[in-house]
Task: structure prediction
Amino acid sequence: MSAHISSVKTYFTVFLCLMAGTALTVWAAFHDFGALSNVVALGIAITKATLVILFFMHVRYSTRMTGLVVLSGALWLFFLFALTLADYLTRVFVPVQAAAGM
Amino acid sequence: MASTPETVAAAPAHGAEHPGLAHHFESYEQQRESASLGMWIFIAQEIMFFGGLFIAYAVYRHMYPDGFAAASAELDVKLGTFNTVVLIGSSLTMALAVRAAQLGRSKASAWFLIATMALGTTFLGVKGIEYHHKYVEHHIPGPSFQFTGEHHGQPVPANQARIFFGLYFGMTGLHALHMVIGLGLLLWLLYHTRKGRFTPDNYNYVEGVGLYWHFVDIVWIFLFPLLYLIGRH
Result:
């Protein structure tokens, strides 16, 4: 069994989707989505990255072992963010009332 | 390679008949999958390497949202978008170089590698122009750092903008370093492609450098909106 060889058409289709994603993310940045701005920007970036990983990096046609390594890379990045932000995003600085007479 | 005549005779699948197959692999397929898996383990490590900078960015942006928005607005969206298109284009030519190598078309592969290098060099050139703008504007963190930007009509503390620019130069600088290394690897690939070293059975070095180049592209796909596009509305 030899490696899967993608067609030129597939590569150009993925490229055009990535261009559309780039245009969309620039357009979205100049419109106010309020609290959703970050979700929109990161959602587009994650979609673009997934396309690159699946097609340009051939993970769609790779072994499950390779897929496992890719997912574990994403999982540990998630751990890094989840554990760090669980601290910083929940820090509330409550003013402490000075004890009387001190 | 170093095998005696006896072992070659005992294992005809290796040695003289298959010069592109290392002796510790059963087949070209196993050799190819091992090479790709090893590259992916390296990339998983790279994700954590860049991840440290991304989490620093997230924490500081959470602390100083206005300072980050005002500093980000000083970057050039046109040049940033242009560079994003150039880099994604270089990923396309890289993917086509790998495809040509898979099909044994060395000449086409070499030209796609040259196109990838040209696009990569263009990206670095534009990055240099942007760095020079920042230098002229005193936006490089250091003794001469100055910042008088504002967000929604309110001036923001220069210290907050300095943290943004520190992360901007740290993240794009590390990314640019990866591109310089990538260009070196592409030059090396080009040399061996022109020597006809890669075959449809063994193009693993081309695939490996391709994976690395695409990873660097993915890092930029995240850097672009996070650095250039916050606080534009």
